[in-house]
Amino acid sequence: MNSKDKSKLPLVVIAGGGFGGQQVARKLEDKPVDVLMLDKHNYHTFQPLLYQVAIGSLEADSIAFSLRKNFAGQKNFHFHIAELTKVNPEKNTIETTIGEIAYDYLVIATGSTTNFFGNKNIEHNAMPMKSIPEALNLRSLILQNIEEAVLLKTKEEREPYLNFVLVGAGPTGVELSGALAELRTHILHRDYPELKKDEMRVYLVDVQPRVIASMSEQASKAAHEFLTKMGVEVLLNVKVESYDGSEIKFEDGKSIPTKNVIWSAGVMGVVPDGISKDIIERGNRIRTDNVCRVEGASNIFAIGDVAAIISKETPKGYPGLAQVAIQQGKHVAKTILHLVNSEVTVPFKYSDKGSLATVGRNKAVADLGKLKFQGFFAWLTWMFVHLISLLGFRNKVVVFINWTMSYLTYNGGARLIIRRFVRDGVPQKRELDEK
Ligand SMILES: Cc1cc2nc3c(=O)[nH]c(=O)nc-3n(C[C@H](O)[C@H](O)[C@H](O)COP(=O)(O)OP(=O)(O)OC[C@H]3O[C@@H](n4cnc5c(N)ncnc54)[C@H](O)[C@@H]3O)c2cc1C
To answer: Among residues 77, 80, 97, 96, which one has the least CA distance to residue 88?
Structure first.
């Protein structure tokens, strides 16, 4: 396959239609280039709301948006479902699941995936939450395990099914543990009257000394207090040693019996083959220069979670945030146009718009530059920012209605098991007993 032959205009191939990749394509609209976007899915995922899909508060299609639909009408835009597997910089081609494609400019915007830090038993048994299929698996597992608990006779038998352990107290772990605590308080007694509220326990575990360590001490302290009041058991300075699917063990010798371990303790860049190992930074991110160009390449760029601009100010690269990917995407589009027009390029400069994290109803934390606030107004700000950032008018309306219903009734979301989660094709214990 050679998409380059179709046009005499330079072809910009964008691998990944996430926050970063979409900005590149959008900013190249009506410009003298052709754009080909490849993504392994035909939709964009709004990852900040994945946890609400996992908990059953939102349906998956309200946080996803078709990439073809989003770019319908952009004349120089083409899209294929395909996975980038290898870059051949010397030939200016990439290898993909739909064949080899030649490019004039390549933008690697493949984002990141869950990092289990090489621990195979945790990778096999814990649940990640980086994509919609993973969030749906998690939703099924949570609901299946509560259903299973209903059928068991003793408290000891029920315990592992009703213990929820979230590893990683970053925004994802905090948001999901808060949502599980709310499920226990507001939903459990209605949907599962057979179970006692205090039998369901939610643990949030981190090796670091504070929750949401990427935010200010003030935000961290407030989030910790919110969680504790909601009944989440926060275990800090604790390192996970292993998880066999039934019991999670910590390095201090303690353990918790649980069928529900949710891993959000780290991410790593999705780097295709063909990129030199010498320019791979911590977190599997591709080192780029200050215009987001892959080091040593003239026409290959990397942006967002998969990339790192290493400098004195950013010794670890920029944080893995949507805003970084969005701003880098816009910048790379401009840089490509500069190169097409033989103009001088300008360095990327990140404008930090601040961070937000929600813990639950009326509870969020906000660090917006010098302005730091927590509680109800932070929560309103969080909702507003997430609503306006969602792609698609329909999605905004559906999410707004869902949130309003949940707020008024304390009972939002459908909580359906659409397809059972089956690990490695192995049925759960009860299904085996029934055979
Ligand atoms: C649960 C969760 C909550 C988050 N909450 C927040 C938040 O509140 N605020 C915030 O700023 N950030 C948040 N983030 C981080 C934010 O989502 C990322 O920083 C952002 O998505 C990075 O954008 P990106 O364009 O680099 O990658 P992504 O948006 O992840 O896009 C990557 C795209 O590449 C595609 N892809 C992957 N591999 C290939 C391949 N080999 N070939 C082709 N396509 C491929 C994927 O399908 C995807 O569409 C959260 C992340 C998660 C997981």
So the answer is: 96
